Amino acid sequence: MKLAAIDIGSSGARLLISNVLHPSKNSSHVVFKDVEYIRFPLQLGKDVFKKEKIGKKKQLQLLKLFQAFKLVMELHEVEDYMALATSAFREATNGTEIAFWLRRETGINLEIIDGSREAEILNHVIIKQLDDDKNYMHIDVGGGSTELNLYKKHRKIAARSFPIGSVREAAESELPRKQMRTWVEENCQKHFQNEEIIAVGTGGNINKIQAMLNKDSDKTLSQTDIVRILDYLNNFSLEDKINILELNPDRADTIVPATNIYLYAMECAHINKIYVPKLGLKDGMMELLYQRNLKNKPKLASAPLL
Questions:
Q1: Is 181 exposed, middle or buried (0-12, 13-18, 19+ CB in 10 A)?
Q2: Among 73, 108, 138, 289, which residue carries the largest CB count within 10 Å?
């Protein structure tokens, strides 16, 4: 079975196509083997967080992307797919209109989801990474929003989405940052008191930080590790991040503000280490797609393309 996940974020647009493998006939365990991954630095947030709508240029880029995604899915003979849009789309005054237009032009149904739904989908894969007897704060930093989820004894006990992201202007984040600190402090005191909490970090920027620290074999980073790489990055201009560090332009533009958000959330909860499993929304979407097909439920509007 081949499944596809389309994730339209505030910074990038992604298409992941995976084969569903069954390593053992006597087990329900499955493996999602990636066969195609496309990421385009669309940066919708650059439009939406300043002008409150998706501009004409971005609309045309979206159309071309969806046309390309459709062709790739057809070439791979994808059996089912899901297409979701997050922060930028849900805040754009013309988001719903553009989603309808894209469906009419390409046949791809794009669902605009809120922060709680985004966190719920991520939960499907994150919870499998957690130990039963430990406390966790999951931090997912995107271009337009940050989702925080608290786990105790393998159970989610609190969650909230904040309009803080790597693409938003820093001035816009001052009040939400205060709200984040209040929420984190109150909930950590209520649920964990003085117990140890481990952070779990998801998002392209924390994955890149891990890679730059050569920590691929060790998925846990210390706060000291992150501060050290942040200090290093701050020595480079945007141009030098691209030309010397060889970061993609959109990553070079967002990696520092995103890293500051991870550090801020960790500081609020007095956490000194973060586990980076290299999972994202698209991985949660794959899990949902598999469950949908496993149960032989009728296909939703985002069914295979004809």
A1: middle
A2: 138
* H runs (alpha helix) in the chain: 45-51, 56-75, 87-91, 95-106, 115-126, 174-191, 204-212, 223-233, 238-243, 249-268, 281-294
Pair (146, 108) in one structural domain? no
- Give the amino acid at 274: I
Range of the domain at 203: 131-280
User: How far is it, in rounded angstroms, from Cα 38 to Cα 71?
Assistant: 13
- Collapse the DSSP code of 51 into the 3-class scheme (helix H, G, I; strand E, B; otherwise coil) and give the result: helix
Residues 261 and 164 in one domain: yes
DSSP one-letter string for 223-285: HHHHHHHHHHHTTS-HHHHHHTS---HHHHHHHHHHHHHHHHHHHHTT--EEE-----HHHHH
Statement: residue 30 has pLDDT above 90: no
Judge if 97 and 188 occupy the same domain: no
Which residue in the block uniquely carries the two structure tokens 């005054």?
A: 93
Q: Are 29 and 128 in contact (CB under 8 A)?
A: no
pLDDT band at residue 35 using 50, 70 and 90 as cut-offs = very high
pTM for this prediction: 0.87
Instruction: Report pLDDT digits (tens) over 169-209.
Output: 665 678 899 999 999 999 999 999 889 999 999 999 999 99
Out of 90-99, 126-135, 230-239, pick the least confident: 126-135
Cα dihedral 68, 72, 77, 80 sign: negative
Could you tell me the two tokens for 37?
Answer: 């991954």
Average pLDDT along the chain: 90
Q: Is 105 found in the same domain as 156?
A: no
The per-residue pLDDT for 22 is 81
Do 152 and 222 have their domain in common?
A: yes
Tell me how far apart the alpha carbons of residues 22 and 200 are, in angstroms, rounded to a whole number. 28
Residue 25, amino acid: K
